[in-house]
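Slide 14.
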Amino acid sequence: MNTRNVEILDDFRTEALERKIPAPDVERWMELVRPSALLTPDGEGPVVGRFGGPIMLPADVETQGYPLVATIDCAALPREATDLPLPRDGRLMFFGYPEEHGMGEVLYVPEGAAVEERELDPSSYPACSEDFAEICGEFLQGDVHLTPDVSLPFVGTVDAPPPAYLVPVPGHPHSEALAEVWADQWGEAALVLGGYGTDCNGCAAADGDSVLLLEFNVYRSGGGAAIFWVIRRDDLIARRFDRTEVLVDWNP
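Slide 15: predicted structure.
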């Protein structure tokens, strides 16, 4: 683990102890740490993809009905960046829009597949709202740089699906307080690969079978919004990205 992430976890431990959470409970909570990756348009980390276009798809794949958020080059991802069973090569393309009921999908383009560029044509997207152009104008553009990060739960449980996320974790009597400490320590990032989601919609590891592929935080009129691409681990291993579920948290 790099120095940055050691310091993050040390700060979390110190803050938890200062809030009088018993040390044994803090250490048990630390066992839930998962690797994740911050994806930003700048930084010193390696380039692992691109925000926005171009949209490069095989000829037999239909043009998607949502904006392209990011394309991730799986071969460029360090293996230790996440604990997800991601493809070793090829590209993952995340399409989405922060509509209340969740809009988006994930496409996997294998390495070596013949592709052609598709037009960036917002007129073909669903008429989601009057402020569609403004919202899409907030989507990042350019290279994706990766920074190794760590993740802990933001909610009170990691072994029961919503709405059970508010109950304590068995064996972790201070889980809600510990999650609150982590939320106070964590700085919001635009794009996060892997780890735990930052609200109940994104806590994809909650039921033990699903994982969070990507979280995208973007401004939406009236406040912020977050898109979560969630998939069952078995479907990820089988490359069944058509089974990805897209969830949105938005407080208008």
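Speaker note: Residues 3-250 form a domain with the Hypothetical protein YwqG fold fold (CATH 2.30.320.10).
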